[in-house]
Sequence to fold (198 residues):
Amino acid sequence: MSTALALNEELNLGLSKIECGQIAHTTEVENRTGLGDVIGSYFGGYEVRIKPGAPGIGKIRKISISPDICVICATEGILETKKVLSDDHLRNNIIKSGDRYLQEILNNSSITVSEIIQISRKFSFEIGLLTQEMKKALISLEEAGFKDSSMIMLGKSIFCITDKRNMGEVHNILKKELALWSIINTTIDHEGVRLIEK
Fold:
């Protein structure tokens, strides 16, 4: 998405933001590098995709989240999306579990961020992509009271959402459990993708 926007600007292509989003989405699908990231980054914030597709085609539902929330991620690298999406058995497991959990989310019009993350957590444990060290770190976070944590799809990575005042404690738990992993502290952008300088 950012590449499409930047090239559009640099090459004076005259495409709208939504056209750039549709190109980015099509490219991801064709190359099996993702299926829903573009529309999420397009709108920003915390959202649930209720209809698949590119911006202008897919539909999202924004979920309210406090501006004091931050995200702490731990990563050791990638799980190649193309490889996962090309594995028929794994893809079928993901679709079967994903459909069930997605309906649980969509059927609850007042669902909270915390409830969505709990569903995400169940999904990540069920589909078999978590390593033992990822499971151990997620369990340690939960035992310390940070239950809003799960796996990043797709990556050899996990995340925890918490108030900014708890960032240090979450960071320390992840550093203890995943000593050689990169730890990233970030916030949630509520504006969506945009050019910030020319």
Summary: The mean pLDDT is 90. The chain is about 45% helix and 20% strand.
